[in-house]
Structures are given as structure tokens and as C-alpha cells.
Amino acid sequence: MFTDKIEARDFSKMPKEYQDLLVRVLTIQADCEIGGPHIYLDRWVLTAPTIDDQLVMAKTASEEVDHCRKMLVLLREVGVDGSHVLWRTKAERAVDAFRMEMPTWADVAVFGFLIDRVGRYQLEEFTDCSYLPLQKVLPQILHEERGHISYGTTKLRELLRAPEGRAQAQAAVNRWYPRALDMFGLSESRRSERYVEWGIKRRGNTQARQEYMDEVTPLLTELGLQIPDPLEDRKYL
């Protein structure tokens, strides 16, 4: 495994494979960070149940936009303009989760609980990675992502206490759980192995997805929610 630490000034000296992998992962990360606000900003910032919820939704969108900005800055530092991700339609997003709609408040809660948790996993891949500028921006982004997960968990617990909340929550889990698993990428991925070999990521897709499932399963069970069949959406196999 590659163990050197690379600065932006070293990027052009690296093999093309390393350059291509880093640009690809930064572009996908930027696309995912801006993809979230595109599916909830218009619908929920000014229609969330309480003024406190509206404030949190606005703050969350602001943080996600800033996460995207940080990734675009990293790309610019190596001579790549990734700003095209800002203007993509939902259908053009890199992963299926950000092509979805968010029609109910239960979707907002479950998105925070499940999808933002995947975001945490994806970002944790870069912990102590070989590209130092990426490693340096991680602490604040991860701190904010954990806040998004915590908020989603709180809203999901509140929803489960409401008269129709449990059915709404289960329906949202059924919609988002397969998308969450799909976000980890194909199990048999040669590119995934190369990310690990170059020290850009620390886990392969299969391992990261399994660890996510191992974390989420007891959390959903504790909430009294059913876990959808992980084989129902087989795109990642």
C-alpha cells in the first residue's frame, strides 16, 4: 500500500492512475454534498414543522454547500474545474440517492438517519489518507455530518411517537435503505481496490457497506423498525 503523504504541489508528479482516482473521488464527493440540498432545500427549509426545524434545515443546507465548496477548492488546487456539479439535474447525479424526491417529513428524518450516515462513512474513508489537503479539511466536515445524523435520529424518534408516524417512518426506511447500500458502490470493484492500494481510501466497498449494515441494523431494531431485505436492490452486487 502507498504510504507517502502528497501535497497539492506533488499532484502533477504522481502517476496518472493516482491523479485520475483522486479527481474522480473529489468530484463525486462534491456532487453528493451539493446533491442533498437540491432535493430538500426548496421543499423543506420554509415548510418544516417548526421554526427551529426550519433553522436547522437552512443550516444543514449551508453546511452541505460549504462541504461541496471545499471539495471544489481541492479540485482547483490540482487544476481541475469541478463546478459543473453545481448545475446538474437530479437525473445526472452520481448516485441514485440524490436523484430521489423527498415528499414527506419522514423522508427528511430518514435521510438524515441513513443517508447522512453513509456520508460519514464515505468521509471517514479519507482519514489519514495519502492526500494531505483532503485529510486537512475532514475534521470540520465530519463534525457537521455527525450533527446531521444526530438531527435525523432525533426527528425519526419524534416521528415514531406520532399517531401515523411509525407507518410513515417505515415507508421512508423502505425507500432510502436500498439507496444507502447502493451508495457504497459495486462489491466487485477493481477501482475500489486501487483506492485502497493508493492510500486514498482505507476500506473496500464491500467492507464499508457491511460495517454500515452492522451499525444500522441494531439501531433500526431498537426503534422497532423493520430492516428491508438488503438483496432487494441488487445494483451494488
Number of domains: 1
CATH architecture type: Up-down Bundle
**What class would the helix/strand composition place it in?**
mainly alpha
CATH fold topology: Ferritin
Task: Report on this structure.
- The protein has 237 residues and is mostly helical.
- The chain has one domain: Ferritin (Up-down Bundle), CATH 1.20.1260.
- It has helices spanning 16-44, 51-77, 105-124, 132-160, 165-182, 190-197, 205-222.
- α1 runs antiparallel to α3 and α4 (132-160) runs antiparallel to α5.
- The mean pLDDT is 95.
Topology at a glance:
Blueprint: H1 16-44, H2 51-77, H3 105-124, H4 132-160, H5 165-182, H6 190-197, H7 205-222
Helix pairs in contact: 1-2, 1-3, 2-4, 3-4, 3-5, 4-5
Can you tag this structure with a few keywords?
mainly alpha; Ferritin; 7 helices; globular
Write a compact overview of the structure shown.
The protein is built from seven helices and no strands.
